[in-house]
Design brief:
single chain, two-stranded antiparallel sheet, alpha/beta
Length: about 500
Amino acid sequence: LHPRVRRQRQMCIRDSFVSVKQHVNDITEVLRGLSAQIESMQKTIDSQHATICQINRTSQGHLNEIRDLKRMLKKKDKENEELRKRLSKYEEPPKNSGNSSTPPSKEGMKDEIVRRTKTLRKPSGKKPGGQPGHEGNTLELNDTVDNIMHERPGMCDKCGESLEGCDTELDYITQIVSLPELKPLITEVRHYVTICRTCGNRVKAHSERRRSNAVVYDASVKGLVVYLSAVQFLPYNRIASFFKEVFGLEISQGSMVNWINEAKRAATPAIEKIKEYIMQSAVVGFDESGCYCNKRLDWAWIAQTVYFTLVFHGKSRKGQELEDRFGDTLERMTAVTDRHSAYFALHFLNHQVCLAHLLRECQYLNELDKDQQWSKSVESLLQEAIHDRNQKPSESIDTTPWLERLDKLIDENLSKLNEKFTTFKNGLLKCRDYIFNFLRDPAIPPDNNASERGIRKLKIKLKNSGCFRSDLGADAFMDLHSIVETTKKHGNSPYNAILALF
């Protein structure tokens, strides 16, 4: 090549090398700068990672705290709900025998005072006392008297002279009724042995000789003891005190127990007959109540009709007690009861729910919320149905319009009212078909008050005596009570019925 050209090429190569060297030096600087930035970024990332970890740990702690707080709030809400329920009974109207099924024995003193002094009848506006046209009752003079006393004045109240020997005329007659001296009549019976003059045989009287005490009591004493126990519900110690203070007789409680058991044995055929008549009845009222016997809670049951009452002792409140006693005859009965589930588990022919129970519950709902009208409408419907039956005591009334009115009330939305309204509405829905059966059949009563009155006497007995100490004592009282209540329904004297057992 030409030397000049060669020099130019060498110069170009040298310039290119210098340029490349300079460029490489620039890349190194760039890489060094990038390395520094990357190291700085790594530190930042490490610092941020540590911060994030710290934040995560703090957040997890906060989450745990929040979870614990939620758990505590849930627990507090549950406690508050329980406390509200416990306090609600103080805020809501108290339940008593007038607005619920609470028995009078469990009422508070205030409720008892109101019940005893306040009538459920609405004021009529009439003056108190006998109304015009009312037949009065007065004691009539007896045709036979035991003693006659003549009351004459001794001197004139005008001139002061003696009236002895003056003419008299009868003005009016007053008969004074008094009790004779309550002194026991003691009869001594002397038993002889007669010797036959033909054969020499010693013939005794037919009456057996007592092996223990030679002094015995007759039916009048035994009957009065049983009457005071089974009809007046007195405990044995008070009966003994009565006989000692009034008659001067000291009768042991053991003798009283023996006489009551004797009356029970004598009443067995009558009890079986009462049971037979009840099993043949088409409409029977039932009820049950707690009975303390031999340190345990048993149950007393009542089955009653218009003419017969049977009270018996059971171990439980289950319907099996009725099945064991009445068997298949239940399938031919219309049962008049409250809404206790045991009755509806049995195979009765039909049911009639006690409207008195429903009306008491309506009364409670009226007191619970005085502004609402739903329970008042239900109460009015039931009262109108009872009034319609009273106006037509022997007619069969169509229940369709009454059920339609009831269905409209049941279909109403009660979500804005207290939950007790919904509970009552659901109860009406369950027994809907058994509310107005008394309208269809005049023989069916609209309530079960007769059964409640019959078994109420048991509670009076328990209140006076505390409890029955044996099953035999409980059975004896209930059998005798059945005899007494049946006797009353036939218009006879319970005392005479008891005397007939001896």
